[in-house]
Amino acid sequence: MSASRYSYIGGFDGTSNVEAAAEFDIPCAGTHAHSFVQSVTGFEDLQTRELVTAEGKTVDFVSIVLEKLDALGFKGKTNQGELAAFTAYAQAFPDGFLAPRRHV
Known about the structure:
This protein is mainly alpha-helical. Helix content is 43%, strand content 6%. The longest helix has 13 residues, at 80-92.
């Protein structure tokens, strides 16, 4: 709870901790059911590989995710189903997905 509060004070846009969001009036974002993550086995389960950017450009988001994974040195070291689930969530809720804004 305190980590959510102090992160928000420190500049984060919100928290995925629903209880902290309610108690400290912090915007809640980035939450989803654990069962959703478990239901995805790989990128072949995604409805699309694409994402429309804020500028209206359609990009192959899965390719971007995989390129970043490789650039960070995590290729072959992650659960593909979990990665695909988080990718699908980011596609569905691009304005509500919490992720670092650091570029590789």
